[in-house]
Amino acid sequence: MDTYQIVHLDGGRLHVPVPEWGFIGKKEGYNGRYSYKFYLSDSPRYELLKFMYSHEKQEQKIAYDYFMRVVLLFESEAEKNEFKKYISSNLNQLKSLISMDTKVYDTSDLRGTEKRVVQERLKIGAALNKILLQWRKLNKTL
User: What pTM was estimated for this model as a whole?
Assistant: First the structure.
C-alpha cells in the first residue's frame, strides 16, 4: 500500500494528497526550468483526493477550484508524456502566458526568495493548465 503526504489548504477546509512533481526543460544543476504539480486521473493518489474532497461543501469547493487552477490533471501517463513533448517544443507559448499573468497569488506567509519562487510556480501551473485545455481541444478536432 502506498503512503501519501497530506496537505491542509485554506485554513484546514480542504485536505489533499500532495500532487506529484513534473519538470519541463533543462537547466544545469536543476531538474527542470519549469516545475509544476500534477495528478494522474487513473492513479491511487487522485482516487484518494476524490475520496477526501466533497463538492457538496461550498468551502471545500472554493478551495479545490483555486487549488486545481495551478495543479494539472492528466487523464493518463500517456497523455502526460504527449503533453510534455508538445509543451517542450512550444516553450515560447508557456513563457508568454507566464509573463502576461499579473495575478498576485496569496503567499502572505512567505518572504523573499521563497515567496518569489512559489509565485512563479503558481503562474507556471496556471499557464500550463490553460495550454493543456487548448491542447486537448486541438487534439480532439484532429
Answer: 0.89
